[in-house]
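Sample log: Serine carboxypeptidase S28.
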Amino acid sequence: MVPNFRHLIRQRLLNHADADDVTDQYPWVIRSNFKQKVDHFNPLNTDTWDQRYYYNPKYARNTSIIFLMIGGEGPENGKWAGNDKYQYLQWAKEFGAHVFDLEHRFFGDSWPIKNMNFDSLSLLTTEQALADLAYFITSMNQKYGFNNPRWVTFGGSYPGSLSAWFRSKYPEWTVGAVASSAPLNLKLDFFEYAQVVQDDLALTNKDCPGYVQQAFQEMKNLSTT
């Protein structure tokens, strides 16, 4: 039952990703894929997979300034690359930058391995995601012939963390990073995130946080009896 359930979850995620694609609203945005490494840290593993990205050349006035929006824990759909109401796209206009939006591994249409087994999900790590960014930048430099490229990464929340960590771990690949609302100091008891989730639940239904708390208490009671 468990493998079938995982397959169902993955299929629903893929269907959701395709249904939400909004590139028809931004005809200048190009949806594409490139060959990404499955495992950046195992030299014996030479497998690759198709990682989805969106490219917006609309504002580009040169071949050296490139903005990269980092995808997070959900599918990308082209909006972050095409909706010029976003502040970073206003900056792209100002500086004449190329714009990319890269989907995170194991989300949307970007699956290194086509299942959700525990062995497969061992490849879902921050280290792999950061290495994905480095390999993506290298690949795009080659594909589009960027001359003396100056990349700047962007992200909010978890992708914001990736943006800052990437600048720290791979400083040679970027000239700057924007990390909005980004938690950087990892800790086991990250109660602040739970508070944000609770606030979001309350916006949907003021009684919802209480029901969730009650459900967790019930699970705790069942696990100790």
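Observation: The CA atoms of residues 66 and 117 lie 36 Å apart.
Observation: The first helix runs from residue 2 to 19.
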